[in-house]
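Journal club side-thread
Mid-discussion, someone asked how the predicted structure for our own chain would compare to the paper's figures. Pasting it here so we can look after the session.
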Amino acid sequence: MSQDTRRGSDEGAERARLAFAYHPDSFEIFTIADAAAGVCDLIWVVDTGLPEVASRARLLRRFGAVVDVTGLDVDEAAAAVRGVQPDGILALADELLAWTADVAQRAGLPGNAPGTALRLSDKRAQREALREGGLLVPRFWSVPVQEGGDGWARLRRDAVFPAVVKPRRSQASRHTMRVESEAHLREVLDDIARESPADRAELQLEHYIADRGRDPHEPFADYVSVESLVSDGTISHLAITGRFPPAPPFRETGFFMPAALPADERAAVMETATAAIRAVGVETGFLHTEIKLTPEGPCVLELNGRIGGGVIDMLGRGAGVEVMRTAMRVALGAHVVFDRPPSVDGVPFVLLVQPPLEGRVVESIDGLDTVREHPGVGRVVVNRGPGAPVDWRAGTNEYVALVEGCVADHDELVALERFLRREVDVRYATEDAAAAASGCA
Protein backbone atom coordinates (compact mmCIF):
# COMPACT_ATOMS: atom_id res chain seq x y z
CA MET A 1 0.00 0.00 0.00
CA SER A 2 1.22 3.49 -0.79
CA GLN A 3 -0.24 6.45 1.03
CA ASP A 4 0.03 10.24 0.81
CA THR A 5 -1.69 11.80 3.83
CA ARG A 6 -2.52 15.33 2.82
CA ARG A 7 -5.19 15.54 5.54
CA GLY A 8 -6.55 13.17 8.13
CA SER A 9 -3.13 12.38 9.54
CA ASP A 10 -2.69 11.60 13.19
CA GLU A 11 0.48 13.67 13.12
CA GLY A 12 0.60 17.32 14.05
CA ALA A 13 -0.78 19.40 16.88
CA GLU A 14 -4.29 19.89 15.53
CA ARG A 15 -6.48 16.87 14.86
CA ALA A 16 -8.75 16.78 11.85
CA ARG A 17 -12.50 17.07 12.39
CA LEU A 18 -14.81 14.62 10.63
CA ALA A 19 -18.56 15.11 10.28
CA PHE A 20 -20.06 11.62 10.46
CA ALA A 21 -23.63 11.26 9.15
CA TYR A 22 -24.91 8.71 11.63
CA HIS A 23 -27.61 6.13 10.96
CA PRO A 24 -28.43 3.39 13.49
CA ASP A 25 -28.64 0.69 10.81
CA SER A 26 -25.01 1.10 9.74
CA PHE A 27 -22.37 0.53 12.43
CA GLU A 28 -22.21 0.52 16.22
CA ILE A 29 -21.25 3.79 17.88
CA PHE A 30 -18.33 2.15 19.68
CA THR A 31 -17.00 0.72 16.39
CA ILE A 32 -17.03 4.17 14.78
CA ALA A 33 -15.47 5.84 17.82
CA ASP A 34 -12.70 3.24 18.06
CA ALA A 35 -11.83 3.75 14.39
CA ALA A 36 -11.64 7.52 14.86
CA ALA A 37 -9.21 7.27 17.77
CA GLY A 38 -5.87 8.72 16.67
CA VAL A 39 -7.31 9.86 13.33
CA CYS A 40 -9.84 12.60 13.95
CA ASP A 41 -12.36 14.20 16.26
CA LEU A 42 -15.92 13.16 15.48
CA ILE A 43 -18.82 15.49 14.84
CA TRP A 44 -22.00 13.42 14.74
CA VAL A 45 -24.59 14.69 12.24
CA VAL A 46 -27.92 13.25 13.35
CA ASP A 47 -31.66 13.37 12.84
CA THR A 48 -33.17 12.92 16.30
CA GLY A 49 -36.57 12.71 14.67
CA LEU A 50 -35.70 9.02 14.32
CA PRO A 51 -36.48 7.36 17.68
CA GLU A 52 -33.43 5.06 17.37
CA VAL A 53 -31.18 8.10 17.02
CA ALA A 54 -32.84 10.14 19.75
CA SER A 55 -32.36 7.28 22.22
CA ARG A 56 -28.63 7.25 21.50
CA ALA A 57 -27.96 11.00 21.51
CA ARG A 58 -26.50 10.96 25.02
CA LEU A 59 -24.09 8.16 24.09
CA LEU A 60 -23.07 9.97 20.89
CA ARG A 61 -22.12 13.07 22.89
CA ARG A 62 -19.61 10.98 24.85
CA PHE A 63 -17.59 10.56 21.66
CA GLY A 64 -17.88 13.95 19.99
CA ALA A 65 -19.95 17.02 19.26
CA VAL A 66 -23.47 16.57 17.90
CA VAL A 67 -25.12 18.56 15.11
CA ASP A 68 -28.88 17.90 15.06
CA VAL A 69 -30.38 18.46 11.60
CA THR A 70 -33.91 17.39 12.48
CA GLY A 71 -36.41 19.26 10.34
CA LEU A 72 -33.77 21.14 8.33
CA ASP A 73 -33.71 21.23 4.56
CA VAL A 74 -30.45 20.47 2.75
CA ASP A 75 -29.28 24.09 2.63
CA GLU A 76 -29.98 24.57 6.33
CA ALA A 77 -28.27 21.29 7.20
CA ALA A 78 -25.22 22.27 5.14
CA ALA A 79 -25.04 25.62 6.96
CA ALA A 80 -25.21 23.83 10.32
CA VAL A 81 -22.43 21.46 9.31
CA ARG A 82 -20.32 24.25 7.85
CA GLY A 83 -20.69 26.13 11.14
CA VAL A 84 -18.70 23.51 13.07
CA GLN A 85 -15.86 23.69 10.50
CA PRO A 86 -15.22 20.01 9.71
CA ASP A 87 -12.41 18.94 7.38
CA GLY A 88 -14.52 16.22 5.76
CA ILE A 89 -17.83 14.38 5.90
CA LEU A 90 -18.61 10.67 5.73
CA ALA A 91 -21.71 8.47 5.49
CA LEU A 92 -21.61 4.67 5.62
CA ALA A 93 -25.34 3.99 5.34
CA ASP A 94 -27.12 3.63 1.99
CA GLU A 95 -30.00 5.81 3.22
CA LEU A 96 -27.69 8.78 3.76
CA LEU A 97 -25.35 8.65 0.75
CA ALA A 98 -27.32 11.02 -1.51
CA TRP A 99 -28.21 13.44 1.32
CA THR A 100 -24.60 13.58 2.53
CA ALA A 101 -23.32 14.29 -0.99
CA ASP A 102 -25.75 17.22 -1.26
CA VAL A 103 -24.64 18.55 2.13
CA ALA A 104 -20.96 18.13 1.23
CA GLN A 105 -21.35 20.07 -2.01
CA ARG A 106 -23.18 22.94 -0.29
CA ALA A 107 -20.76 22.98 2.63
CA GLY A 108 -17.66 22.97 0.39
CA LEU A 109 -16.43 19.59 1.62
CA PRO A 110 -14.81 16.85 -0.48
CA GLY A 111 -16.91 13.89 -1.62
CA ASN A 112 -18.72 12.31 -4.54
CA ALA A 113 -20.95 14.49 -6.69
CA PRO A 114 -24.67 14.34 -5.83
CA GLY A 115 -25.40 12.67 -9.17
CA THR A 116 -22.91 9.93 -8.37
CA ALA A 117 -24.42 9.41 -4.92
CA LEU A 118 -27.86 9.12 -6.51
CA ARG A 119 -26.56 6.39 -8.82
CA LEU A 120 -25.17 4.57 -5.79
CA SER A 121 -28.54 4.78 -4.00
CA ASP A 122 -31.11 4.34 -6.77
CA LYS A 123 -31.03 1.01 -8.61
CA ARG A 124 -32.72 2.34 -11.74
CA ALA A 125 -30.35 5.32 -12.11
CA GLN A 126 -27.45 2.95 -11.50
CA ARG A 127 -28.58 0.38 -14.08
CA GLU A 128 -28.96 3.12 -16.67
CA ALA A 129 -25.43 4.40 -16.01
CA LEU A 130 -23.96 0.88 -16.15
CA ARG A 131 -25.76 0.07 -19.38
CA GLU A 132 -24.62 3.34 -20.95
CA GLY A 133 -21.09 2.43 -19.84
CA GLY A 134 -21.25 -0.74 -21.92
CA LEU A 135 -21.53 -3.19 -19.03
CA LEU A 136 -23.60 -6.34 -18.98
CA VAL A 137 -26.54 -5.74 -16.61
CA PRO A 138 -29.97 -7.38 -16.21
CA ARG A 139 -32.77 -5.88 -18.29
CA PHE A 140 -35.00 -3.79 -16.05
CA TRP A 141 -38.41 -2.11 -16.01
CA SER A 142 -40.22 0.25 -13.63
CA VAL A 143 -43.25 -1.17 -11.85
CA PRO A 144 -46.13 1.34 -11.97
CA VAL A 145 -47.77 2.28 -8.69
CA GLN A 146 -51.25 2.64 -10.18
CA GLU A 147 -53.17 -0.15 -11.84
CA GLY A 148 -53.86 0.16 -15.55
CA GLY A 149 -52.60 2.98 -17.75
CA ASP A 150 -49.63 3.21 -20.12
CA GLY A 151 -47.12 2.04 -17.52
CA TRP A 152 -48.73 -1.36 -17.10
CA ALA A 153 -49.21 -1.67 -20.85
CA ARG A 154 -45.47 -1.10 -21.37
CA LEU A 155 -44.57 -3.53 -18.62
CA ARG A 156 -46.87 -6.19 -20.04
CA ARG A 157 -45.36 -5.66 -23.48
CA ASP A 158 -41.67 -5.51 -22.55
CA ALA A 159 -41.10 -7.54 -19.38
CA VAL A 160 -39.53 -10.98 -19.59
CA PHE A 161 -40.16 -13.66 -16.99
CA PRO A 162 -38.86 -15.12 -14.77
CA ALA A 163 -37.89 -11.82 -13.20
CA VAL A 164 -36.91 -10.33 -9.86
CA VAL A 165 -38.89 -7.57 -8.18
CA LYS A 166 -37.11 -5.33 -5.68
CA PRO A 167 -37.30 -1.81 -4.19
CA ARG A 168 -35.27 0.79 -6.06
CA ARG A 169 -33.80 1.96 -2.76
CA SER A 170 -33.08 -0.80 -0.27
CA GLN A 171 -30.40 -3.12 1.02
CA ALA A 172 -29.96 -6.68 2.33
CA SER A 173 -32.43 -8.07 -0.26
CA ARG A 174 -35.46 -6.69 1.56
CA HIS A 175 -38.67 -7.48 -0.37
CA THR A 176 -36.60 -9.00 -3.18
CA MET A 177 -38.44 -11.89 -4.82
CA ARG A 178 -38.45 -13.95 -7.98
CA VAL A 179 -41.69 -13.80 -9.97
CA GLU A 180 -42.67 -16.23 -12.70
CA SER A 181 -45.41 -14.32 -14.53
CA GLU A 182 -47.43 -11.13 -14.56
CA ALA A 183 -50.09 -12.81 -12.41
CA HIS A 184 -47.43 -13.83 -9.88
CA LEU A 185 -46.03 -10.31 -9.93
CA ARG A 186 -49.42 -8.89 -9.02
CA GLU A 187 -49.72 -11.28 -6.07
CA VAL A 188 -46.29 -10.22 -4.82
CA LEU A 189 -47.14 -6.53 -5.23
CA ASP A 190 -50.27 -6.96 -3.13
CA ASP A 191 -48.17 -8.62 -0.41
CA ILE A 192 -45.56 -5.82 -0.44
CA ALA A 193 -48.31 -3.17 -0.34
CA ARG A 194 -49.72 -4.78 2.82
CA GLU A 195 -46.36 -5.27 4.53
CA SER A 196 -44.42 -2.18 3.41
CA PRO A 197 -46.29 0.58 1.54
CA ALA A 198 -43.11 2.67 1.24
CA ASP A 199 -41.35 -0.12 -0.68
CA ARG A 200 -44.41 -0.62 -2.92
CA ALA A 201 -44.20 3.01 -3.99
CA GLU A 202 -40.88 2.46 -5.80
CA LEU A 203 -40.30 -0.98 -7.23
CA GLN A 204 -38.20 -2.25 -10.10
CA LEU A 205 -38.49 -5.45 -12.11
CA GLU A 206 -35.32 -7.08 -13.47
CA HIS A 207 -34.85 -10.04 -15.74
CA TYR A 208 -33.67 -13.03 -13.70
CA ILE A 209 -30.13 -14.03 -14.66
CA ALA A 210 -30.08 -17.81 -14.65
CA ASP A 211 -27.27 -19.81 -13.12
CA ARG A 212 -24.60 -20.83 -15.60
CA GLY A 213 -25.28 -24.54 -15.26
CA ARG A 214 -23.26 -25.02 -12.09
CA ASP A 215 -22.54 -28.51 -10.87
CA PRO A 216 -25.15 -29.33 -8.17
CA HIS A 217 -22.30 -30.62 -6.01
CA GLU A 218 -20.39 -27.32 -6.29
CA PRO A 219 -20.55 -25.74 -2.82
CA PHE A 220 -20.23 -22.09 -3.85
CA ALA A 221 -22.61 -19.71 -5.58
CA ASP A 222 -21.87 -18.29 -9.03
CA TYR A 223 -21.85 -14.67 -7.88
CA VAL A 224 -19.16 -12.77 -6.03
CA SER A 225 -18.44 -9.23 -4.90
CA VAL A 226 -15.41 -7.02 -5.39
CA GLU A 227 -14.40 -4.84 -2.45
CA SER A 228 -12.74 -1.64 -3.66
CA LEU A 229 -11.39 1.71 -2.51
CA VAL A 230 -11.45 4.86 -4.64
CA SER A 231 -9.19 7.72 -3.57
CA ASP A 232 -8.96 10.87 -5.72
CA GLY A 233 -10.33 8.80 -8.61
CA THR A 234 -7.70 6.06 -8.25
CA ILE A 235 -9.28 2.60 -7.92
CA SER A 236 -7.76 -0.10 -5.69
CA HIS A 237 -9.35 -3.53 -5.47
CA LEU A 238 -8.88 -5.11 -2.04
CA ALA A 239 -10.54 -8.52 -2.36
CA ILE A 240 -13.03 -10.69 -4.20
CA THR A 241 -15.58 -12.16 -1.81
CA GLY A 242 -17.13 -15.54 -2.55
CA ARG A 243 -20.61 -16.73 -1.56
CA PHE A 244 -22.48 -19.84 -0.55
CA PRO A 245 -25.80 -20.36 -2.40
CA PRO A 246 -28.48 -18.02 -1.03
CA ALA A 247 -31.54 -19.05 0.96
CA PRO A 248 -34.79 -18.47 -0.95
CA PRO A 249 -35.55 -16.04 -2.32
CA PHE A 250 -32.22 -14.13 -2.23
CA ARG A 251 -30.91 -14.08 1.36
CA GLU A 252 -27.19 -14.44 2.08
CA THR A 253 -26.14 -17.63 3.88
CA GLY A 254 -22.39 -17.10 3.94
CA PHE A 255 -19.45 -15.27 2.39
CA PHE A 256 -15.71 -15.56 2.52
CA MET A 257 -12.48 -14.26 1.01
CA PRO A 258 -10.79 -14.85 -1.26
CA ALA A 259 -13.39 -16.25 -3.66
CA ALA A 260 -12.57 -19.65 -5.13
CA LEU A 261 -12.03 -18.45 -8.70
CA PRO A 262 -9.39 -19.32 -11.29
CA ALA A 263 -6.97 -16.54 -12.27
CA ASP A 264 -8.72 -15.66 -15.54
CA GLU A 265 -12.09 -15.20 -13.84
CA ARG A 266 -10.53 -13.13 -11.06
CA ALA A 267 -9.04 -10.79 -13.64
CA ALA A 268 -12.33 -10.52 -15.56
CA VAL A 269 -14.30 -9.81 -12.40
CA MET A 270 -11.93 -7.03 -11.26
CA GLU A 271 -11.95 -5.47 -14.75
CA THR A 272 -15.74 -5.47 -14.63
CA ALA A 273 -15.74 -3.81 -11.21
CA THR A 274 -13.34 -1.13 -12.47
CA ALA A 275 -15.59 -0.40 -15.45
CA ALA A 276 -18.68 -0.24 -13.20
CA ILE A 277 -17.05 2.21 -10.79
CA ARG A 278 -16.03 4.46 -13.66
CA ALA A 279 -19.48 4.25 -15.29
CA VAL A 280 -21.16 5.43 -12.08
CA GLY A 281 -18.57 8.19 -11.67
CA VAL A 282 -17.23 7.43 -8.20
CA GLU A 283 -14.28 9.58 -7.11
CA THR A 284 -13.94 8.59 -3.46
CA GLY A 285 -14.97 5.96 -0.93
CA PHE A 286 -15.26 2.23 -0.38
CA LEU A 287 -17.39 0.18 -2.75
CA HIS A 288 -18.95 -3.26 -2.91
CA THR A 289 -19.72 -4.49 -6.47
CA GLU A 290 -21.83 -7.65 -6.80
CA ILE A 291 -21.15 -9.57 -10.00
CA LYS A 292 -22.74 -12.74 -11.37
CA LEU A 293 -20.72 -15.10 -13.55
CA THR A 294 -22.71 -15.95 -16.69
CA PRO A 295 -21.95 -17.67 -20.02
CA GLU A 296 -21.90 -14.19 -21.60
CA GLY A 297 -19.36 -12.89 -19.10
CA PRO A 298 -19.49 -11.09 -15.72
CA CYS A 299 -22.86 -9.36 -15.18
CA VAL A 300 -23.09 -6.48 -12.70
CA LEU A 301 -25.93 -7.07 -10.25
CA GLU A 302 -25.35 -4.07 -8.03
CA LEU A 303 -22.79 -1.45 -7.00
CA ASN A 304 -23.02 -0.30 -3.38
CA GLY A 305 -21.39 2.87 -2.07
CA ARG A 306 -20.09 1.24 1.09
CA ILE A 307 -18.69 -2.05 2.36
CA GLY A 308 -20.78 -4.12 4.74
CA GLY A 309 -19.78 -5.04 8.28
CA GLY A 310 -19.00 -8.66 7.45
CA VAL A 311 -16.56 -7.68 4.73
CA ILE A 312 -14.95 -5.10 7.02
CA ASP A 313 -14.38 -7.78 9.65
CA MET A 314 -12.94 -10.25 7.13
CA LEU A 315 -10.54 -7.70 5.66
CA GLY A 316 -9.43 -6.80 9.15
CA ARG A 317 -8.91 -10.40 10.31
CA GLY A 318 -7.49 -11.81 7.11
CA ALA A 319 -5.57 -8.92 5.56
CA GLY A 320 -5.01 -6.41 8.35
CA VAL A 321 -6.89 -3.66 6.47
CA GLU A 322 -8.54 -1.16 8.81
CA VAL A 323 -11.45 -0.31 6.54
CA MET A 324 -13.36 2.09 8.81
CA ARG A 325 -10.24 4.01 9.76
CA THR A 326 -9.11 4.19 6.13
CA ALA A 327 -12.55 5.43 5.05
CA MET A 328 -12.25 8.25 7.57
CA ARG A 329 -8.77 9.22 6.38
CA VAL A 330 -9.88 9.27 2.75
CA ALA A 331 -12.93 11.39 3.62
CA LEU A 332 -10.54 13.83 5.27
CA GLY A 333 -8.41 14.11 2.13
CA ALA A 334 -5.75 11.42 2.52
CA HIS A 335 -4.67 9.73 -0.70
CA VAL A 336 -4.61 5.95 -0.16
CA VAL A 337 -3.71 3.51 -2.92
CA PHE A 338 -3.14 -0.26 -2.78
CA ASP A 339 -0.67 -1.38 -5.43
CA ARG A 340 -2.29 -4.83 -5.43
CA PRO A 341 -4.96 -6.63 -3.40
CA PRO A 342 -3.48 -7.36 0.02
CA SER A 343 -2.72 -11.01 0.72
CA VAL A 344 -5.26 -12.77 2.90
CA ASP A 345 -4.08 -15.10 5.65
CA GLY A 346 -6.26 -18.22 5.41
CA VAL A 347 -9.94 -17.95 4.51
CA PRO A 348 -11.90 -15.62 6.82
CA PHE A 349 -15.65 -16.25 6.65
CA VAL A 350 -19.11 -15.29 7.89
CA LEU A 351 -21.88 -17.93 7.90
CA LEU A 352 -25.53 -17.07 8.52
CA VAL A 353 -28.44 -19.22 9.70
CA GLN A 354 -31.54 -17.95 7.89
CA PRO A 355 -35.14 -18.76 8.85
CA PRO A 356 -37.29 -20.72 6.38
CA LEU A 357 -39.94 -18.89 4.38
CA GLU A 358 -42.70 -20.26 6.59
CA GLY A 359 -40.97 -19.41 9.90
CA ARG A 360 -42.54 -16.60 11.92
CA VAL A 361 -41.23 -16.96 15.49
CA VAL A 362 -38.04 -18.61 16.75
CA GLU A 363 -39.02 -21.27 19.30
CA SER A 364 -35.65 -22.82 20.15
CA ILE A 365 -32.02 -22.98 18.99
CA ASP A 366 -29.78 -25.97 19.65
CA GLY A 367 -26.24 -26.81 18.55
CA LEU A 368 -24.57 -23.40 18.59
CA ASP A 369 -22.43 -24.31 21.60
CA THR A 370 -20.99 -27.24 19.68
CA VAL A 371 -20.31 -25.04 16.66
CA ARG A 372 -18.59 -22.47 18.90
CA GLU A 373 -16.02 -25.11 19.89
CA HIS A 374 -15.24 -26.13 16.30
CA PRO A 375 -11.69 -25.30 15.08
CA GLY A 376 -11.63 -22.08 13.06
CA VAL A 377 -14.72 -20.56 14.67
CA GLY A 378 -13.97 -17.26 16.34
CA ARG A 379 -17.39 -15.93 17.29
CA VAL A 380 -21.04 -17.01 17.37
CA VAL A 381 -23.76 -14.35 17.63
CA VAL A 382 -27.48 -14.93 18.13
CA ASN A 383 -29.41 -12.26 16.23
CA ARG A 384 -32.95 -13.62 16.74
CA GLY A 385 -33.26 -15.69 19.90
CA PRO A 386 -36.15 -17.82 21.18
CA GLY A 387 -39.37 -15.82 21.17
CA ALA A 388 -38.16 -13.37 18.52
CA PRO A 389 -40.26 -12.83 15.38
CA VAL A 390 -38.65 -13.42 11.99
CA ASP A 391 -39.81 -12.50 8.50
CA TRP A 392 -37.98 -13.48 5.33
CA ARG A 393 -39.41 -10.40 3.59
CA ALA A 394 -37.00 -8.24 5.58
CA GLY A 395 -34.10 -9.90 3.78
CA THR A 396 -30.67 -11.03 4.92
CA ASN A 397 -30.65 -9.06 8.17
CA GLU A 398 -33.37 -11.31 9.65
CA TYR A 399 -30.78 -14.08 10.15
CA VAL A 400 -31.11 -16.10 13.34
CA ALA A 401 -27.41 -16.62 14.06
CA LEU A 402 -24.01 -15.63 12.71
CA VAL A 403 -20.81 -17.69 12.83
CA GLU A 404 -17.51 -16.09 11.88
CA GLY A 405 -13.87 -17.05 11.97
CA CYS A 406 -10.99 -18.14 9.76
CA VAL A 407 -9.92 -21.53 8.37
CA ALA A 408 -6.87 -22.67 6.42
CA ASP A 409 -8.46 -23.19 2.99
CA HIS A 410 -11.70 -23.56 1.04
CA ASP A 411 -11.97 -27.29 1.71
CA GLU A 412 -11.97 -26.66 5.45
CA LEU A 413 -14.57 -23.94 4.95
CA VAL A 414 -16.90 -26.28 3.05
CA ALA A 415 -16.55 -28.91 5.77
CA LEU A 416 -17.30 -26.35 8.48
CA GLU A 417 -20.32 -24.98 6.63
CA ARG A 418 -21.76 -28.48 6.26
CA PHE A 419 -21.08 -29.18 9.93
CA LEU A 420 -22.98 -25.99 10.86
CA ARG A 421 -26.02 -26.97 8.78
CA ARG A 422 -26.08 -30.47 10.32
CA GLU A 423 -25.46 -29.43 13.91
CA VAL A 424 -27.64 -26.37 14.38
CA ASP A 425 -31.33 -27.11 14.90
CA VAL A 426 -33.68 -24.13 14.98
CA ARG A 427 -37.36 -24.69 15.61
CA TYR A 428 -39.91 -22.15 14.41
CA ALA A 429 -43.58 -21.38 14.81
CA THR A 430 -45.20 -21.08 11.41
CA GLU A 431 -47.57 -18.33 10.33
CA ASP A 432 -50.61 -20.44 11.22
CA ALA A 433 -49.19 -21.35 14.64
CA ALA A 434 -48.24 -17.76 15.37
CA ALA A 435 -51.72 -16.55 14.42
CA ALA A 436 -53.34 -19.22 16.61
CA ALA A 437 -51.14 -18.26 19.58
CA SER A 438 -52.19 -14.62 19.23
CA GLY A 439 -55.85 -15.54 19.00
CA CYS A 440 -56.13 -14.44 15.38
CA ALA A 441 -56.78 -17.87 13.86
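Post-session note: The mean pLDDT is 91.
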